[in-house]
Amino acid sequence: MTSTAIPKYASAVILLRPDQAGDWRFFWAKRAEATPFLGGYHAFLGGRRDPEDSQVAVCHATDAEHAAQCACAAREVFEESGVLLAESRLTTTESRLAVRADLMAGRLTFAEVCARFAVTIDARRFIPAGRWVTPVGVPRRYDTTFFISQLDWQQEPHLWAEEMVDGQWVTPSEALAAWARGEVRLVPPTLHSVRSLFRWTSEAAAQQADFERLRFLFHDHPAAQGAPPEFIELAPGIVTFPVRTPTLPPATHTNCYVIGDRELVVIDPASPYSDEQARLDAYVTQLADQTGAAIREIWLTHHHPDHVGGAAHLSRRWNAPVAAHPLTAQLLGDEVCISRFLRDGDTVDVPAASTSVAYGVVPPAWPGWRLRAVFTPGHARGHLCFFEETTGILFSGDMVVGLGSVLIDPDEGDMADYLASLRRLLDLPVRLIAGGHGPALNEPRTVIHSYIAHRQQREASILAALREGKTTVPELVATVYAEMPAALHPLATRSVQSHLIKLLREGKVHRHANGSLKRI
């Protein structure tokens, strides 16, 4: 699925209850790493709507759509946690978990569960808490209705481990602190929801269990009305701002990153399109109006047009200097004026000014940000990654991406350098990879090792094809990339040529005078 696909409907539920001390806690869990959507991220219970959800009776719903979303919410919570947010004959934990097992095994549908066990779903138990649409630039998109539901002490979540793990009842302040420390990863609706709960628990409204006030706070965000959020906060003071660019499919956007709260470093303002440049300008203007923020410097990972397309505009608009590797500056020429060279190991400290955990971008006593340039040639000769030492986030440009694959073009890059650069990244204490395209990636060491293994497998396939008698690049492409559509074979050809240059240099392949190839 591409990022231009129509989002699928989904529901999510924020379970709430006060602890013995009277402090409100909510339930969340970590999505299993193997799940195809946001594996490793912390989230509330919920998931995609099934067609049969519209067949489940829901009392006090405002219309059929509202009823289907509530039914979806009840079903997803039951599947993932064994909690049934409804009246029913399933009054014991054992009975609920046994029926949940039958449901997950396909022996029962949720509609059959409702009919057999007199399940009565009341829409009033699901307090609306906003509607969020997955941002552009990610491979799976959802249109999710969020609900708040108070859970009594008669039920306790028992997670279905294939989907959710490490469930916890936490206070909003505990959750925000964990996010700030980089211990949990959150998407925009989850982060906003936690901040809304933090605001609510800081008010008298929480002591009075005023859920109407909480409902208002949850809707107090431009993206809580169904418009995709324009940016994603990866960590305190680190924002992903996807912009539409003329990049290679399946990606349609390039990730621009904004680091800091008062002094800002902007990485890869990528879009050449005036409307996208205006969106980024508006975001920086908003920061300037709110906190007096200003762009200190613009950093470029490399010279490709889908990473530098808006650099000259942003530099002129905000009178901000641009920094890049000397080779990148040479390749850009007069296209972008480079004011300062960045070399391997260069660092910059970005001080923190804000102190508000609820409304600002950084928590109290935040040490600020320290960006280090890491020279990573391979995809491009002057390619740099930027490692943020406080949070452990690696801004990887086109070394590692969250969507699509990395092309090593022999005219602009080098396969041996690329593999060496990947291995160098393994030496960094990276906690999250923020690539040039697609969502951020958890489990960075696993991801980098998979990149290396993929290239090694391609190389082995090329050598095997040569052993079998293939002697030309077209023959190698047809064999090694047999699963790839023919329309993409020109890109595959460039990749094979890059591998061959490496293999010829290493003496593993010989090229005859007539141009034919042979494995040595």
Automatic annotation (TrEMBL):
InterPro entries listed in its UniProt record: LACTB2_WH (IPR041516), Metallo-B-lactamas (IPR001279), NUDIX_hydrolase-like_dom_sf (IPR015797), NUDIX_hydrolase_dom (IPR000086), RibonucZ/Hydroxyglut_hydro (IPR036866), Sec-metab_biosynth-thioest (IPR050662), WH-like_DNA-bd_sf (IPR036388)
Superkingdom in the source lineage: Bacteria
SUPFAM superfamilies (alphabetical): Metallo-hydrolase/oxidoreductase, Nudix
The Nudix hydrolase domain, residue ranges: 7-192
SMART domains: Lactamase_B
Protein's recorded name: MBL fold metallo-hydrolase
Organism whose genome encodes this protein: Chloracidobacterium validum
